[in-house]
């Protein structure tokens, strides 16, 4: 479903992630791709690297465009055709959040996949609201001073049927979640962590290692939320400290011990929050 000869960087985790998403979604799918690395990978029509129809809207309008395509398909008797958004974190966490929230509130029938490389990598690696605390970008050369936005929790609060995180570093979990989301109807969001070789300062073969370390230290937990209330953590073992994850990336070079400790404390607090939500759903905690 993704042809060779596309314009992704060597070692790009986004192309690898998109290839598996597209293979799982199948040919009866229409993709919506806003300006992003994925738009460069897809290329312009009629020379697209995707073997399905692609509509490229403005950066802020992905969810709105997908809503219109969904309504048009339904009106012409093609309700079985999947509508798939492939957008970056800049067009999802930031510029596209208004349209995204509106589509979630209306429970539009689409699968929205956020390819989260934690910055505006296509335009020079500027920070986005998905960029983690202390990460160095071209617009935060001394390190970002605010925390990463929790998009999954924000969309889950809309009460949509399904939202989840996934990573190509944990392929069986990612493929299961794509299949699960595909089988549902209504608004579904998958956020895939996509380490950026250039923007994160990784070697060409370092993307999968960074993806795995992010999950193993708890910086990017794998979990899913059904109907806004049922939280399930899918990878429960934290087998390495955050410092090991930071050490493989140039964007964290020069951090002080205090900054590393603060980032570890933030990850620990986020993990405890997830455990409480999952336990509360299981009836282990008082409301």
From TrEMBL:
Entry annotated with the keyword Zinc-finger: no
Protein name: Thiamine pyrophosphate enzyme TPP-binding domain-containing protein
Keywords, comma-separated and alphabetical: Oxidoreductase
InterPro entries: PorB-like, THDP-binding, TPP_enzyme_TPP-bd
Alphabetized Pfam families for the sequence: TPP_enzyme_C
Domain of life: Bacteria
GO biological process entries: small molecule metabolic process
Entry's Gene Ontology molecular function annotations: oxidoreductase activity; thiamine pyrophosphate binding
Thiamine pyrophosphate enzyme TPP-binding domain mapped to chain residues: 55-190
Keyword NAD annotated: no
């Amino acid at each position: 479903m993704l042809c060779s000869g596309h314009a992704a960087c060597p070692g790009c985790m986004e192309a690898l992630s998109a290839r598996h998403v597209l293979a799982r979604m199948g040919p009866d799918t229409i993709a919506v791709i806003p300006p992003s690395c994925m738009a460069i990978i897809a290329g312009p029509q009629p020379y697209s690297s995707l073997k399905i129809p692609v509509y490229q809207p403005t950066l802020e309008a992905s969810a709105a465009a997908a809503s219109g395509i969904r309504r048009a398909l339904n009106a012409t008797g093609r309700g079985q055709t999947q509508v798939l958004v492939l957008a970056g974190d800049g067009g999802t966490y930031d510029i596209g959040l208004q349209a995204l929230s509106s589509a979630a509130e209306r429970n539009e029938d689409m699968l929205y996949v956020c390819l989260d490389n934690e910055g505006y990598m296509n335009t020079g690696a500027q920070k986005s609201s998905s960029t983690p605390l202390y990460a160095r970008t071209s617009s935060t050369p001394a390190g970002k001073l605010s925390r990463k936005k929790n998009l999954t929790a924000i969309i889950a609060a809309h009460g949509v049927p399904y939202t989840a995180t996934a990573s190509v570093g944990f392929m069986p979990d990612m493929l299961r979640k794509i299949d699960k989301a595909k089988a549902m109807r209504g608004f579904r969001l998958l956020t895939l962590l996509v380490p950026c070789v250039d923007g994160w300062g990784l070697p060409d073969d370092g993307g999968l290692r960074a993806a795995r370390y992010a999950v193993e230290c708890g910086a990017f937990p794998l979990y899913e939320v059904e109907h806004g209330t049922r939280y399930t953590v899918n990878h429960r073992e934290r087998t390495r400290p955050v410092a090991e994850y930071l050490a493989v990336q140039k964007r964290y070079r020069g951090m002080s011990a205090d900054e590393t400790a603060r980032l570890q404390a933030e990850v620990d607090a986020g993990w405890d929050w997830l455990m409480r939500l999952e336990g509360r759903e299981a009836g282990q905690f008082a409301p």
